[in-house]
Amino acid sequence: MQISTKKVLGNYRTYVAKSLAGEEAYEYAAVFTLGKAKCESMSGKSLAEAAALMEAGRLFARAEENLQTTSAFSSGEFLENALSCFLKAAKLKVTEVYRVLLVLFTLPPKSKAISKDGPMSLSPYIDENGEITQGSIAEYLDEDLFINLKSLILAHTSEDLNSLDITASFLQACLDSTQRGILQDLVEQATNPPDDVL
Which sequence spans correspond to the domains of the chain? Predict the structure, then answer.
């Protein structure tokens, strides 16, 4: 069994970050957590990267809070770093929703074949055993969003138009206006498929 250097490095950074946070050295813990986010990014795990960025943001916020409670001078640098981490994490999560919608939108009509790996993969949402494992997408997404995306994928691939419509109505509350537009187009395409399929 070959262990990835990136995974070992990421685990080491997690260990060091937790140790530093335990010693209330939050700014240093945040830097190591940013290193973990970079490892996740290099491994192509965008939602794991987002989770690490959220943790780094929380640690930077704690560092800023510590500075303010000790009456030390604060230039606001830790607060700026926290906001930057939170914004990057939010962007990565929004990107995942776009990815799922666009993969479904580009699936050929009546297609049951879903790619198991790569950017077109939806396999984390349609895992047969339904278990949430360490590092799975469900671990990083809001539970309602994950369940609604999973339901959307299952309804779309099974061509259950009633379930697709119901799931789309529930999912709309979790989406921005552009994502809602893509979702409406997806439901419309499933309901009224084009006659001229390439």
Answer: 5-91, 107-191
